[in-house]
């Protein structure tokens, strides 16, 4: 039990906790942003999401696909597909005992790449900006995964 407490008190684990929280909060903010776009564009996914004082025919008109809402939803989906692996692999990486400077580099690069990816997706910026942001984040997670596998390889 003492080893676990020591790992949690380590600077690398505290750094991971900080950057994991930042990127998770960024991902969580995408849900209210999607709601905002749904409300302002009057584009809802379900009939029950529309106003109560409307006729059924008017409600059907509001259940539609809007390109702006879909853009935010795809950005959120992309966050889910990338942040969750970062959280799992990043935790395992932190437990391998990397140097603090190397760990900070990984964590910071990933968080900045996800923030830039969201900006590139939502503005939208021309490609390859979004693709490069995705690739940098993906390679950062892959680099941490490589460290985890080479440190604790029990295949």
Please give a handful of descriptors for the protein shown.
about 160 residues, mainly alpha, about 75% helix, elongated
How would you explain this protein's 3D organization?
Helices cover 77% and strands 0% of the residues. With 155 residues, it is mainly α. The model has no long low-confidence stretch (mean pLDDT 90). Helix 5 runs antiparallel to helix 6 and helix 6 runs antiparallel to helix 7.
Low-confidence stretches: none
Helical run tally: 7
Determine the structural class based on helices, strands and strand pairing. Answer: mainly alpha
How does the major sheet shape up?
none
Rounded Rg: 20 Å
Helices and strands in order:
Layout: H1 2-8, H2 11-28, H3 30-41, H4 56-62, H5 67-95, H6 100-122, H7 129-151
Helix pairs in contact: 2-5, 2-6, 3-5, 5-6, 5-7, 6-7
Task: Summarize this structure briefly.
The protein is mainly alpha-helical. The protein contains seven helices and no strands.
């Amino acid at each position: 039990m003492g080893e676990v407490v020591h790992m949690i008190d380590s600077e690398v684990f505290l750094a991971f906790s900080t950057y994991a929280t930042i990127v998770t909060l960024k991902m969580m903010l995408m849900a209210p942003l999607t709601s905002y776009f749904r409300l302002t564009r009057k584009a809802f996914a379900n009939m029950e999401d529309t106003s109560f004082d409307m006729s059924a025919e008017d409600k059907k008109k509001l259940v539609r696909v809007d390109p702006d809402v879909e853009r935010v939803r795809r950005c959120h989906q992309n966050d889910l597909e990338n942040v969750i692996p970062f959280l799992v692999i990043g935790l395992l990486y932190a437990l391998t005992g990397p140097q603090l400077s190397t760990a900070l580099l990984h964590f910071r690069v990933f968080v900045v790449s996800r923030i830039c990816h969201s900006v590139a997706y939502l503005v939208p910026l021309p490609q390859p900006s979004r693709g490069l942001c995705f690739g940098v984040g993906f390679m950062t997670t892959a680099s941490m995964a490589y460290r985890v596998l080479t440190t604790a390889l029990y295949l």
